[in-house]
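Bug #77: duplicate submission created two jobs. Keeping one. Sequence:
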Amino acid sequence: MTDLFEKSIVTLELPRVLEQLAACAATQEGKERSLALRPMTDPDDVQRALDETTAAVNMLIQRGSPGFSGVKPVGASLHRADMGGSLNTRELLEIAAVLRCARTAKEYGDTEEKTPISHLFRALTPNRFLEDTITNSIVGEDELADSASSELASIRRHMRSTEAKVREILQKIISSNQSKYLQESIITIRSDRYVVPVKSEFKNSIPGLVHDVSSSGSTFFIEPMGVVKANNELRELAAREKKEIERILAELSAQCAAHKEDISEDYDLLIWLDTIFARGRLSLNMEASQPRLSEKYLRLQKARHPLLDKKTAVANDLELGDKFDTLMITGPNTGGKTVTLKTIGLLTLMAQCGLHIPAGADSTVRVFDRVLADIGDEQSIAQSLSTFSSHMTTIVGILNEADDHSLILLDELGAGTDPVEGAALAASIIDSARNLGALVAATTHYAELKVYAMTTPGVENASCEFNVETLAPTYRLILGIPGKSNAFAISRRLGLPEYIIEKAAARLDAENVRFEDVLTKLDQQRQEMEKERTEAKRLKLEMEQSAAKAKEYRDKLEAERAKVVEKAQAEARSIIEEARAASDLAISELKELQKRKDLDWQQVNDGRAQARHLLNEAEKNIGGPVQEPEAPPPTRDAKAGDTVELVSMGTKATVLSVNKDGSLQLQAGILKISAKQSEVRVVEGETQSQKDVRKIIQRAERTLRSAAPREVDLRGMTTDEALVTLENFLDTAMLGKLETVTVIHGKGTGAVRNAVRTYLKRSRYVKSFRPGRYGEGEDGVTVVELK
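Kept job's structure:
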């Protein structure tokens, strides 16, 4: 990478974006690698990095953030252990933290879905046995657990019993009549031995060894003879304890050395993953998206400068390299020309670093070998010869390095010298850059360059819009139309006398006047077209809303009609059942009559006619025989991504996946359900409005998940304030579907900690909780696992 390319990277402010990226990394080395990131020039490498970022974004949305905060460099420690050295407790705990993080990261990435970063998670080789051995043996940075070895437990048990014996003997002295010899009724330690403070005038009244004297000489710290033997035993046990601790640390160090390669590889993979997920977090923060790659052109849709406030920054459509290879941007000062130029260069560099860009998802970028920029302060009104010389020196360097894989960005080309000569020189420089095959974007004030762009094939004009009424730029870029000089209009609005403006206008030659008039008419026509287009959009939106209301009304009527039909069918079935019952009764009576010898056949015939009449009247009253509702017509088999309707419920759902047995996994609102192919019918023809609504809902769900904080700090709050804050935090964490969160309450008096843990015991959100481990904040934090 050349010095000029590096200078252009700084000019386009890529380091400021990388600072934001570093802030998203959890580890120190991840931050350093983020700051050191540089644009790649191989399209395959760029595509791989962009795909990795996209995979990280998807995982952050679906599963929250993996934890990398406990990972610290362990290479030097492992090297010393491999050389036979013994590591201290802090170094061993740092190795255990790497092992723990590798284990949790592998669990986090354990999914059937194959992504561009799946291989990184699979490559992790956690060692749960060594992790547990270290964490169970070391309880603090300077303390080993009794359970570290049976010998250590035995030594400490003897130390406690011996210490108790010493204290018992000394307590008897304090409680006896010898207490009058003591300066204070306390037991203290001097030179690692238990002693009592004796008044100087009674130093011979208590036989023993003097270990220390107070600075005033009024107190002697004496070890009574009765505890000398026990103190000696304590010293011996302490020496044995130290030796056993050294042995345990040496053994743990040897185990770490035996797994040096795996631990080192895990550390490198975790740092790599940390930088990838930092890119994913930055993408979510910027509301960015992955661009496509092209070998020929760049086309940015709704592009925003990443360092401007995303709420107020004006998004513009930019393109270069397809229909034209040179873009000439004109417009007033403070109109956004330089921002536009920097947006083109910075978004290109970001994409080549594997970062998502703040532009529409259908944007396309080209991978360049070099992005070369000469961008100065276009606000300067006192440009001197030295400024011109400085810019020209940079331009000479750019032309020497540029080729057909270069993007050249030139701000205020030709400024700082005579306008006529400057315009001619600028046109010549652009021609030279185009002959090299480079893509060029330049800003200018010169009318000659506007004409050059209008008359030269492959060169396109663009202008930054300016509102003369408000004397303010709109920062909108208009492709295809050169910017109009607004000097006279602005001066008139600011109150400059009209006769001065008329004299100035008289000094312009006829060609310039005609050119400005043409630009004025073009701008008026463009504004009228913009108004018509806006009105057309408004009418289209109203039509879509009216169509949606009409559909809603039709659906409501259909639902009401279905209810009426169902009720009518139920009544019809009831009437028919009654008629059939009456008919059956009549037929039964007729059969009884047939058994009689004195049968009246006229009565029989009348009875049969009456039965038929009852049944006919029933069917006539309901409009014919009752038909069972027909099943909806069959559709094609549903596949992932389809919208379907559950036939039995009339509810629409989205197909998440198709199982091996052909059954479907569906998402209906917040519910996930299973169904057979025969139980659903595919809903075809989703409208654009429905698609837009669905995208908005999905984007809201992603934002909610990524924005949910993983920890809350309750330090400095009262108990009541802390519990209210904790309740709100847990609500947000559950909405964000987080699995684990951290509550920071500090140690202090323990009041807030106890209140927090009491609340967590009865919270319906909490599956389990535990105090923090070493490196997590220990008893000053509580780690909560949510349901």
